[in-house]
Amino acid sequence: NRTVTLLERKTEEQQRFIHMLSHDLREPLNSVNNFSSLLADEHMGELTPVARRYLDFVRLGGRRMGRLIDNLVEFTQLDGHPLNIEPVEVARLVEEVRDALDLPLQRCQGRIEIGPLPVVMADAGLLRLALRHLLGNALKFARPGVPPVVRIGGSQDDTLDLIHVSDNGVGI
Fold first, then answer.
1. Are 141 and 127 in contact (CB under 8 A)?
2. Which pLDDT score is estimated for 79?
């Protein structure tokens, strides 16, 4: 079918584009990571506590960006490769995402409330990416003048572990 062939070709083109983009993004990211590591290794004692904290943000952001690039490349290859399904401690993953959102949380005076969460069988990278988008969007689309509150928790039914995310934002 001609439509299927065009769709397959378009998907292959998108995969190649994302692969090239990830390669092009890694070079400046590696520079940021390498130079921030050198700065930390050679001058950490000379930095003020505030400067050390800022440098830590740069280093954490660089590592996070690397993981995001890896996740993007993995996502484009899902059709050709199996998912990496393993037990994932959702609470730990949410803590990582909340830590990554520390600066936006401070800026908007928001908070992320974490309730009990299950261990689930999932691809940790893709679940992290989904949580990052859900929580990040909840902070971004807050009601004007109202600090955002995002609640995340879990429950179980007979066959499924469920993760619930709610917020006090503007909604859809």
1. no
2. 59
Three-state secondary structure of 146-170? CCCEEEEEEEECCCCEEEEEEECCC
3-state helix, strand, coil in the chain (%, to 5): 65, 15, 20
pLDDT, one tens digit per residue, over 72-98 is: 777 676 655 567 889 999 999 999 999
How many Å from the N-terminal Cα to the C-terminal Cα in the chain?
37
* Cβ 138 vs Cβ 148: under 8 Å: yes
Residues near 123 by Cβ (< 8 Å), separated by ≥ 6?
83, 84, 85, 86
Torsion region of 171: left, alpha or beta (phi above 0 gives left; psi -120 to 50 gives alpha): left
| Predicted TM-score (pTM) of this structure | 0.57
Strands 149-156 and 111-114: parallel
